[in-house]
Amino acid sequence: MAKVIEGLYYSESHEYVRIEGEYGYIGISDYAQHALGNVVYVDMPEVDDEVVAGEEFGAVESVKAASDLIAPVSGTVVEVNEALEDQPELINQDPYENWIIKVELSDKEELDNLMAASDYEDFCNK
Question: Number of helices and strands (H, E) in the chain?
């Protein structure tokens, strides 16, 4: 059973966002990393890039497949998780600790379009 964490917001494409003030930490869910298998590469945007909710901002590649990363919220990239450049497998170890990008949110109301933990759990179990 994939781990789902209370207090995060989840998208149907299996990204999560953790909100801290005006910032959102975006990564992939435990369900997604299980489905992908061993992650071997993470393609991330640059700092100062704009991401748009519902649009691709990068990709995660595993030994099985490559999967586009879809932004759950819009904003400006203020940080990328550089540890993933050398150790993409950190996503498999703990996808919630090892976020992919940190964005300054441009519209907090977009969070209303995402699922809470219990809804996401139901979604994954369908």
Answer: 4, 9
Q: Is 76 exposed, middle or buried (0-12, 13-18, 19+ CB in 10 A)?
A: middle
Residues found in the chain: 126
Q: How many CB atoms lie within 10 A of CB 88?
A: 21
Contact 15, 68 (CB under 8 A): no
Q: How far is CA 44 from the centre of its chain?
A: 11
Report the distance separating Cα 120 and Cα 28, nearest Å: 13
Residues 6+ apart with CB under 8 A from 112: none
> Over the stretch 17-51, which tens digit does the pLDDT of each residue have?
999 999 999 999 999 999 999 999 999 999 999 99
